[in-house]
Design goal:
The chain is of the alpha+beta class. It contains 3 helices and 5 strands; from the N terminus they run αααβββββ. Strands 1, 2, 3, 4 and 5 form a 5-stranded antiparallel sheet that branches. Helix 2 packs antiparallel against helix 3. The termini are far apart. 22% of the residues are buried.
Length: 193
Amino acid sequence: MAPSLGRILRSKKGQSLIELSLIAPLMLLLAYGAVEVGSVISTYLTISHTTREGANLTSRGTLPNPALDAIILAAAPTLRTGASGNEPQWRVIYSKIIQKPGTACPTEPCQYIVDTAANGQIVKGTLNKTSKLGTPTGIPIPQTTLPGIQDVKAGQTFHVIEVFYDYAPSIITFVGKGINTDFYERTVFIGVS
């Protein structure tokens, strides 16, 4: 009996099995981590592309509501609406920025506000975030909020798309805990229509 137990302990097959059982969980964890990092990068790129396309569409004269619906549809499956939607996870905000009415602008920079008209600011999604530009109240937007605005000539109109996204890991890994899960992206286009 003793010689057969010693033979088993010295067996190469047993050693390989033990090594595999020790290394397999680590390799699986690394593979899931790589998938999660890829998902984070894909989500960020989708959000960045969404803001650019939305600002481009609205600056060229597309009405804001259809433009927002189009970019949200194009951003699926990251941004989803309807029965299988994830609206509590994201918010898309369109803001039309205009020169403050009744305020002379003899020298730049001019004072700009979020347009107080009906379509001055449109919000889609239910994530609890507010526009970093402000609300349509007539209060001027600080130049620090829109850097580069001081170089723009008087009377310009800006179209801004902001996207907030609360990233939730699709796979339970340690990677989701090590990153900032609140994504924010903003694009500003000058109106060309």
